[in-house]
Amino acid sequence: MNNIVAIVGRPNVGKSTFYNRLVGGRDAIVDNVSGVTRDRKYGMTDWNGKRFMAVDTGGFVHGSEDVFEAAIRSQVRLAIEEASAIIFMVDAASGLTDLDEDVADMLRRTRKPVFLAVNKVDNHKRLMDANEFWSLGFEHVFFIASISGSGTGELLDAVAEQISDEPEIKSDLPKIAIIGQPNVGKSSLTNALLGEERNIVTPIAGTTRDPIHSHYNKFGKEFLLIDTAGIRKKAKVHEDLEFYSVMRAIQALDECDVMMLMIDAQSGTMEAQDMTIFRLAMDRHKGIVLLVNKWDLVAKETNTARDFEAKLKEKLSPFSDVPIIFISALEKQRIFKAVDIALEVYERRKTNIKTSVLNDFLEEAVAKYPAPAYRGNLLKVKYATQLSNLHYPSFIFFCNHPKHLGENYKRYLENELRKKFDFSGVPISLFFREK
User: Fold this and answer.
1) What share of residues in the chain are helix, strand, coil (percent, to 5)?
2) Do residues 298 and 266 make contact, with C-beta atoms less than 8 angstroms apart?
3) E-assigned strands of 154-243?
4) Longest Cα pair distance anywhere in the chain, in angstroms?
C-alpha cells in the first residue's frame, strides 16, 4: 500500500477547499505545471493515527471542451493507477453533470476503494437534492461541506481504514532511494552499483514501471537500494510523465531513509519537478544527497563543478546544507563516493545529542549573537533538549517570548547547530516553547 489518497473531480466542486482542510496548517507542496494552468498540491496529513499523502489533482481553466474533458480523464487514470484510495468529489449545488457521469464510469472499473464525496451539502434542501448521486452506484457515499467541515470526519474515518499501518519494507538495513525525473540515469546507476543488468536501460524516458528493491552487500557496505526508475513509457503528453514520476517519488520516499536525488548535468540546473521532489523529501524529513549525473558530458571550460554547485545551492536556499556529488553513472565516476556519502547522511539522521552538550552549544551561540530585543523586552533562549520520539533530529528551545523570536534568529540557531554537529543532508526541526 503506497498511502497516497488522490482527490479527483471536475473543477469548482471544492477539491482544494477539502484538501486545505485535510492538510491543515502544514506547508503544502505546490507543483505549478506551466502550459496547463493547474496547481497540483501534495501534502502530508494524518487521521486516526494513519499518515498519508493527499494529492489535490487541481482543476483546469478555459480551453476547448475536448481538451478540458481529456485532461479530467487523464487525472482520473493517473489516480486509478497510482493512488491507494480515491476521493471522487461532486457538487450538490450544481447537481449531477455529464462529466461527473463520465468520471464515475471510469472509477467503477477500478478495484481501488472509491469514496464519493458530495460537497456543498450545507442545508436541508441540498441534502435532499444530493440523493441523486446515489445513482452513480458507489458503495461509499458521504455528504459533506468542505468549508465548514461537516461530514468530513466520517469520510476520513472510512479513508483511514484503507491506509496501511506498516511500511512496505521491513528491514533494519539503511534504505536508499534513487529518485529523479525520467531518463536522468537512475537505472544506469543501479546497474553500475550492483554490477549487473538489474533493470532494463534504454534511452526512452520512463522504461521502468515499478520501484525496484535491491539488496546491496559489497565492499563492507550493506543497504537496500530502491530504484524508483519512474514510470512506463507514455505516448501521451510529457505532462503525464511528470505527474507519474512525482507519484513514484512519493512512494519511494515513504520507504526510504535517504534520497539520492539525481539531476541531469546537461540541463544546467534543477527544474521545477526536481524542486517539488526535493521539497517533498524535506517535508518528510528524509536524508538528502544530490547527484549531478552525466557530468562527463558537460564542457568543463564553460562550467566548473564549483560554479555549478554554487548555482544549485542558491536554488535550494534556505536549505542548502546538502551534499552535492558530480557523477557519471555510465562511466562509473564517483558512484561509490555517492554511496559513502548517502550512508554518512543515514548515520547523521540518527544523531542523538546529550542535553548537557546541547546546552553548552546554546550558551556559546547566544553569547556570540544574542537574540534581538522586541519592543524593549530582552529575548532569552534559556534551555534546549532533543526530542527522542522522532525518527529525525528535532530540538525544543525554551525561551521567554517564543512568539517574538524572529525567523532570522531561528535560522541562525539552526545554521549554528548544523555547523557544530554536522547535519549536512539532514532536514532538522526546531521548536520554540515558552519557559
Assistant:
1) 35, 25, 40
2) yes
3) 175-180, 212-218, 221-227
4) 72
- pLDDT tens over the chain, length 435 residues: 457 898 888 878 888 888 888 887 544 555 544 333 355 677 778 888 888 888 887 654 334 455 656 666 676 777 677 788 999 999 999 999 888 898 898 899 888 899 999 999 989 999 998 999 999 999 999 999 988 889 999 999 999 988 876 555 556 889 999 998 878 888 889 888 887 655 444 444 444 444 567 888 888 889 888 876 543 444 444 455 566 667 777 778 888 999 999 999 988 788 888 888 898 899 889 999 999 999 988 877 667 888 899 999 999 988 889 999 999 998 999 999 999 999 999 999 999 999 999 999 999 999 999 988 888 888 899 999 999 888 899 999 999 988 888 899 999 999 999 999 999 999 999 999 987
- Collect all residues with Cβ–Cβ distance below 8 Å to 383 and sequence separation of at least 6: 359, 362, 397, 398, 435
Contact indicator for 429, 392 with CB cutoff of 8 Å: yes
Give the integer Cα–Cα distance in Å for 131 and 126: 9
Encoded amino acid at 70, one letter: A
Residue 5 dihedral angles phi and psi, to the nearest 5°: -115, 120
Place of cell 455529464: 98
- What SS3 state is found at 49? coil
Q: Between 15-23 and 152-160, two packed helices, what is the crossing angle to 10 degrees?
A: 70
Which three three-digit cell numbers place residue 73? 480523464
For residue 45 the three cell numbers come to 496529513
Q: In degrees rounded to 5, what are phi and psi of residue 219?
A: 50, 35
Q: What is the radius of gyration, based on Cα positions, of the chain?
A: 24
Q: Give the contacts of 66 (CB within 8 A, at least 6 positions apart).
A: none
Grid cell locating 160: 483511514
CB 378 within 8 A of CB 366: no
